[in-house]
Design goal:
There is one protein chain. By secondary structure, the protein is of the alpha/beta class. The protein folds into two domains: 179 residues, NAD(P)-binding Rossmann-like Domain (Rossmann fold, 3-Layer(aba) Sandwich), CATH 3.40.50; 103 residues, N-(1-d-carboxylethyl)-l-norvaline Dehydrogenase, domain 2 (Orthogonal Bundle). The chain contains 13 helices and eight strands. It has an eight-stranded mixed beta sheet with strand order 3-2-1-4-5-6-7-8, with helices on both faces. Helix 6 links the parallel strand 5 and strand 6. The radius of gyration is 20 Å and the shape is globular. The structure holds nicotinamide-adenine-dinucleotide. GO terms for molecular function: 3-hydroxybutyryl-CoA dehydrogenase activity; NAD+ binding. Belongs to the 3-hydroxyacyl-CoA dehydrogenase family. Its EC number is 1.1.1.157. One of its GO terms (biological process) is fatty acid metabolic process. InterPro entries: 3-OHacyl-CoA_DH (IPR022694), 3-OHacyl-CoA_DH_CS (IPR006180), 3-OHacyl-CoA_DH_NAD-bd (IPR006176), 3HC_DH_C (IPR006108), 6-PGluconate_DH-like_C_sf (IPR008927), 6PGD_dom2 (IPR013328), NAD(P)-bd_dom_sf (IPR036291).
Length: 296
């Protein structure tokens, strides 16, 4: 396996392209937006510069990694002669089903089609293709170049051979793959999201405040970040939509999203990306913090 196509140059797509290119694969990075491709490449360059400054890679390795990535704005040109396509486009069912329908018609019959989806059923995505045995979940974690885990998700019809190819490939990227079956939330989000939801319920019921809840989990459980801060980083809209997938998929009320989470999303408080969630990330708040540092 030498030629890889990555669809989507956003947060995850550029990280996946970076990782494969760093390990010598030829990567075609595809996005419908030229701006996303430019931003993606500049993020990859910035991350490589950071690694260079820490002497983790040489300048030659940086240049070679960048030379291994080519960008495209159409699927047809980008997936030609690729052995593996990894889809990391926006999390939207219809969008992904359309992409996989098209991939199935334009890719070689042997090409493996993987998706980085956080919550959409691999079996459903595979069902729109004529090669469900070659469709698989390859769920990287953010930031991709740093995080070791790859959750490898077998759809109902994914073959043993395709699963073992993707497990081996992940190891070649110096990642640790784990194999899981295709049920709502897979493993990562099935366990993470109820924990975040429970933290939000604790706040909603007045058991403790934001600082107290996050401090208990950071200092008591050695989590690097508290659950409310983590929810802000993931995006409260993303957390809500994954909880809905769990709730609908299992029909079990234990996954019902906390009303406070629903209200915050309706109010546009989405966490870091909107400037406010459980914490305040607005510019004025940042300026206030800087000013306080000077005064002290
Ligand atoms: N952000 C995370 O922490 C994270 C972690 C694990 C998995 N994921 C999953 O990875 C996928 C991508 O998430 P992201 O956070 O990188 O999103 P993002 O919004 O940062 O990037 C998505 C990119 O897809 C592009 N795109 C949209 N439609 C397209 C199309 N038809 N063809 C090509 N490109 C298209 C957009 O222009 C955008 O650049 C989602 O399925 C998400 O669930 C995200």
């Amino acid at each position: 396996m030498k030629n890889i196509a990555v669809i989507g140059a956003g947060t995850m797509g550029n990280g996946i392209a970076h990782t494969f290119a760093q390990f010598g694969y030829q990567v075609n990075l595809i996005d419908i937006s030229e701006t996303s491709l430019e931003k993606g490449l500049s993020t990859i360059t910035r991350n490589l510069d950071r690694m260079l400054a820490k002497e983790k890679i040489s300048n030659e390795a940086k240049l070679q990694t960048l030379a291994n990535i080519k960008t495209y704005t159409t699927l047809n040109d980008g997936v030609k002669n690729c052995d593996l396509v990894i889809e990391a486009a926006t999390e939207n069912v219809d969008l992904k089903l359309n992409i996989f329908k098209e991939l199935d018609t334009i890719c070689n019959t042997e090409t493996i089609l993987a998706t980085n989806t956080s919550s959409i059923s691999i079996t459903k995505i595979a069902s729109v293709t004529k090669r469900p045995d070659k469709v698989i979940g390859m769920h990287f974690m953010n930031p991709v170049p740093i995080m070791k885990l790859v959750e490898v998700i077998r759809g109902y019809s994914t073959s043993d051979q395709v699963t073992s190819t993707i497990m081996e490939l992940s190891k070649e990227l110096k990642k640790v793959p784990v194999e899981v079956n295709d049920y709502p939330g897979f493993i990562a989000n099935r366990i993470l999201m109820p924990m975040l939801n429970e933290a939000i319920y604790s706040l909603y019921e007045g058991v403790a405040g934001v600082y107290e809840i996050d401090t208990v989990m950071k200092l008591g459980m050695a989590h690097p970040m508290g659950p409310l801060q983590l929810a802000d980083f993931i995006g409260l809209d993303v957390c809500l939509s994954i909880l809905k997938v769990l709730h609908n998929g299992f029909g079990n009320p234990k996954y019902a999203p906390c009303p406070l989470l629903t209200n915050m999303v309706m109010a546009g408080k989405l966490g870091v990306k909107s400037g406010e969630g459980f914490y305040d990330y607005s510019e004025s708040r940042k300026a206030e913090k800087v000013a306080k540092q000077f005064i002290q």
